[in-house]
Amino acid sequence: MSEQPGRSCPIHYRYQPERLCRDPEPVKADVLYVIGGLYGNPLALDAIDAMAASEQALGRRVKLLFNGDFNWFNADEDAFVDVNNRVLAHDIIQGNVEYELANPSPDAGCGCAYPDFVDNGTVERSNRIITRLQAIASRHPDIQASLRAAPRWRCLSFGGETLLILHGDPESLAGWGLASENLSRPSHQHQLHQWFAQTGATLMACTHTCLPALWQRHDTLLSQTIINNGSAGMGNLHADPRGLITRVSTIPADTALASVRQGDLEVSLVPVAFDAQAWVARFDQCWPTGSDAAISYRQRILKGTKLTVADIRL
Asked: What pLDDT band is residue 96 in, cutting at 50, 70 and 90?
């Protein structure tokens, strides 16, 4: 791994897989939303709140857990405070963005630990985006303190399964070991099975790498599932500006784009439909043409990625 800021993986991001599920917390809910990569999009947050409210109206208990990078594009004072206050009303774990807002480290840059297949221009722009956000965060020590106090992972007992909530992978807050690019590699399968054995998890939910993926393998004794929601606040699929979240429940989702069964649970990627044009208008006010975020992300916000639904299942 390069020591270049934005590519390096700081030692304080790392942890031992064997520690992660020593004491699973029981979930007192019927439906769990795992929300990664909101990226400061308040309209996506409005949509997620509405999704939860519609399920609650059916008598379901819905729990929201944000697994990091809920900050990114909210780089003005009001948007920063609004997004953080709303998200911090729920359970969270840190993403690399939140870690670097609470504990700025010049050697980490954005803390993304970008792999070699990400170009240097993207890395450098991300480092400048985090610098702008850090300046805002420094004026809100109360928010910084809440972000600093958040855990780096959560392990839950839900529906008879052991669910490990991560930002990156089982070895690092910013690890790319659960990225779609790695989940599809035959040479990486042994590592995935080793992480399940080390953690004791049966289901892992992650984000960080910004592209959705759903991986499942079976043997004679058990199933193992990995779900990466990509981004809740940006488009994930071709010509589709909707975000995605992970939904876990014994009750099937009505709008899932991809699902698997893990024991009694249905594990799904569910779209987050918000007004994309209204979001772009807000984005442009904060990140005009030629700005770092506009260069890196505006086309994806408008048009999604090259992936299709069929590409999600690995």
From this structure: very high
Least Cα distance to 120 among 312, 278, 296, 246 occurs for 296
Q: Where are the domains of the chain?
A: 18-73+152-312
pTM of the entire predicted model: 0.96
Q: pLDDT tens, 157-189?
A: 999 999 999 999 999 999 999 999 999 999 999
pLDDT at 146 over 70: yes
Give the architecture-level CATH label for domain 18-73+152-312: 4-Layer Sandwich (3.60)
Residues facing residue 254 across a β-bridge: none
- The pairing of strands 91-92 and 62-66 is parallel
